[in-house]
């Protein structure tokens, strides 16, 4: 900023010595040093305050970006949740419709070979045990099954 070399400082020191004299020069140098130190400290504190404000602004901006991202994500999740709910309701409706069709088919809709079968809504009747087939009948050479009942 200021381009002050050694020769210029030497000229200033000589002029100060002539004007102030050897008795007041040390006191004036201390006073000038004190003011220079105060000016530097003030400049440093202003610089630090500006840096803190800039950092605070940066943090605020980052927090706002994060909030916006969270809101976007929340909106996306809500939208996908609503879409899933709608799809689930549609699937439920389709399932209910299919269940109703399976439970109560119209008699005209039944094929001819199924017309003799009882409807799904009709009570289930007990069926008689199947008659023995040749695979379940005792073989000719095997003894007949013994009964556990006693004969009188």
Quick structural summary:
The chain is mostly helical. The protein has one helix at about 5-105.
Task: Describe the model.
The protein is an all-alpha fold and 152 residues long. It contains one helix and no strands. The longest helix is centred in the middle third of the chain and has 98 residues, at 6-103.
- How many distinct helices? 1
> Could you tell me the radius of gyration in angstroms?
53 Å
Main sheet: strands, sense, barrel: none
Average pLDDT level:
80
Number of extended strands? 0
Structural class: mainly alpha
End-to-end gap: 136 Å
Uncertain ranges: none
Described by the principal axes of the CA atoms, the overall outline is rod-shaped
What are the secondary-structure elements, in order, as H or E? Answer: H
Q: Share of helix among residues?
A: 55-70%
Please state roughly what percent of the residues sit in beta strands, choosing from under 5%, 5-15%, 15-25%, 25-35%, 35-45% or over 45%.
Answer: under 5%
């Amino acid at each position: 900023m200021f381009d002050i070399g050694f020769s210029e400082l030497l000229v200033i020191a000589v002029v100060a010595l002539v004007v102030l004299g050897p008795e007041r020069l040390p006191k004036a140098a201390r006073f000038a040093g004190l003011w220079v130190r105060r000016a530097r400290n003030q400049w440093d504190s202003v610089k630090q305050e500006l840096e803190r404000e800039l950092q605070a602004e940066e943090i605020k901006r980052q927090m706002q970006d994060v909030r916006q991202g969270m809101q976007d994500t929340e909106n996306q999740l809500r939208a996908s949740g609503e879409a899933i709910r709608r799809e689930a309701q549609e699937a439920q409706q389709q399932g209910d419709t299919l269940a109703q069709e399976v439970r109560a088919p119209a008699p005209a809709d039944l094929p001819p070979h199924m017309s003799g079968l009882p409807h799904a809504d009709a009570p289930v009747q007990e069926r008689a045990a199947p008659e023995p087939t040749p695979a379940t009948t005792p073989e000719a050479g095997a003894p007949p099954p013994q009964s556990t009942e006693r004969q009188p």
